[in-house]
C-alpha cells in the first residue's frame, strides 16, 4: 500500500492522519497515512529514509512505497531547501508543506497553505477581488499565503507585523505580484474589507497591538489559528464590531485536500470533514 505521513516535532497533536484517512475513504484510495516525529537535527536523513528506504531511518517506510509527506512546524523551511523541484509559488514562499517524488525519483515540494486559505475564504462565499485586505504577521504562514492571495486580484494588501522589518522583506519579495505594502501595527489608520490574522499571538492567548480603526461594520475577519472556542483574536474582532469571524480549521482541511490532489490526482470534498472536526 502507498505510504504517506505528516512529519513535525512535536507531532502528536496533528489532525492530518484523521483528515487523510477520511479523504482516502471518500475517494476510494488505498493508502496508509501516519504521523512521524523527526529529531530536530536529522530532518534531511529522516525524509530520505522515508522516500528512499536508506540511511538511519530506512525503516520509516517499505522501500519504494513512501510516496508523500506533509511537513509541519518546525521543518517547512528545511523541507524547502531539500527539494530538487519547486513550483513558482513554493519558491517564493521559502517553505513547503507537501513533498512527493517525480518520475525521476527527485524530491519535489509544494506549499498548499495559501491555496487552502483562499479556498476556505471562497467556501464562505468571500471573494478577494477588489478588496482591501490587511494581513497581520510576517512569519512562515503569511509568506506562504501571499502569492495565492495576490492572484485573486485584491485592490490592495497591507502587511503589518510587530517586527516591521520582516513585513518590509515580504513586500520586497511579493510586490511584483500585486499592490502590497507594509505598515507598523500602530500606524494603521484605515478600515479593511478583510482582516487576516497570521500571527501566532492567539496561541499564547495574546493580541497584536492593533487599533480598532481597522474594522468597519462590514469587515470580515479570518484567524489562521483554530480552536474549540472562539480564538482570542476573533473574540476581540467581534467585540470591535466585525461582521463575521472565521478560524483556520477550514484552511487546515483545504491545504490537506490540495496535498491529497497533488499525490493522488483526485480532489476530495472537504465540507464533511470540516464539520466532523468542528464537532469532535
Ligand atoms: P511564525 O513563528 O513563523 O511567525 C509568527 C508571527 O506571529 C510573526 O509575525 C510574529 O511577529 C507574530 N507574533 C507572535 N506573537 C505575537 C504577539 N504576541 N504579538 C504580535 N505578533 C506576534 O509562525 P507561522 O507563520 O508558522 O504561524 C502563524 C500562525 O498561523 C500560527 O497560529 C499557526 O498555527 C497558523 N497556521 C495555520 C495554518 C492552518 O492550516 N490553519 C497553517 C499554517 C499556520 P514577529 O515577527 O514580530 O516575531
Supply database-style keywords.
280 residues, alpha/beta, six-stranded mixed β-sheet, six-stranded parallel β-sheet, 10 helices, 12 strands, 23% strand, binds NADPH dihydro-nicotinamide-adenine-dinucleotide phosphate
| Unreliable stretches covering 5 or more consecutive residues | none
Largest sheet: 6 strands, mixed
Oligomer: single chain
Class based on secondary structure composition and strand pairing: alpha/beta
Question: How many angstroms separate the termini?
Answer: 28 Å
Spatial order of the strands forming the largest sheet: 2-1-3-5-6-4
Count all strands and give the number. 12
* Averaged pLDDT: 96
- What is the overall number of helices? 10
Helical amount: 25-40%
Radius of gyration: 19 Å
- Distinct ligands, ions and cofactors found in the model: NADPH dihydro-nicotinamide-adenine-dinucleotide phosphate
What is the H-and-E element order? EHEHEHEHEEHEHEHEEEHEHH
Tell me the overall shape: globular
Strand proportion, as a percent range, falls in: 15-25%
Amino acid at each position: 500500500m502507498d505510504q504517506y505521513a505528516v512529519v513535525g516535532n512535536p507531532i502528536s497533536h496533528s489532525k492530518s492522519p484523521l483528515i487523510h484517512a477520511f479523504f482516502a475513504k471518500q475517494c476510494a484510495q488505498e493508502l496508509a497515512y501516519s504521523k512521524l516525529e523527526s529529531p530536530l537535527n536529522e530532518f534531511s536523513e529522516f525524509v530520505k529514509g522515508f522516500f528512499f528506504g536508506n540511511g538511519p531511518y530506512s525503516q520509516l517506510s517499505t522501500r519504494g512505497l513512501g510516496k508523500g509527506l506533509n511537513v509541519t512546524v518546525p521543518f517547512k523551511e528545511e523541507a524547502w531547501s531539500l527539494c530538487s523541484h519547486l513550483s513558482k509559488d513554493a519558491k517564493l514562499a521559502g517553505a513547503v508543506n507537501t513533498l512527493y517524488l517525480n518520475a525521476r525519483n527527485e524530491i519535489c515540494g509544494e506549499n498548499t497553505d495559501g491555496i487552502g486559505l483562499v479556498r476556505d475564504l471562497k467556501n464562505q462565499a468571500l471573494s478577494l477581488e477588489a478588496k482591501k485586505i490587511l494581513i497581520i504577521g510576517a512569519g512562515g504562514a503569511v509568506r506562504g499565503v501571499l502569492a495565492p492571495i495576490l492572484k485573486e486580484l485584491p485592490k490592495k494588501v497591507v502587511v503589518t507585523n510587530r517586527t516591521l522589518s520582516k513585513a518590509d522583506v515580504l513586500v520586497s519579495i511579493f510586490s511584483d505580484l500585486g499592490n502590497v505594502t507594509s505598515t507598523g501595527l500602530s500606524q494603521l489608520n484605515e478600515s479593511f474589507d478583510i482582516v487576516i490574522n497570521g500571527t501566532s499571538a492567539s496561541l499564547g492567548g495574546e493580541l497584536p497591538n492593533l487599533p480598532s480603526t481597522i474594522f468597519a461594520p462590514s469587515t470580515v475577519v479570518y484567524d489562521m489559528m483554530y480552536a474549540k472556542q472562539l480564538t482570542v483574536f476573533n473574540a476581540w474582532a467581534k467585540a470591535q464590531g466585525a461582521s463575521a469571524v472565521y478560524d483556520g480549521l477550514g484552511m487546515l482541511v483545504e491545504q490537506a485536500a490540495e496535498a491529497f490532489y497533488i499525490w493522488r490526482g483526485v480532489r476530495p470534498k472537504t465540507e464533511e470533514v470540516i464539520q466532523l472536526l468542528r464537532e469532535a
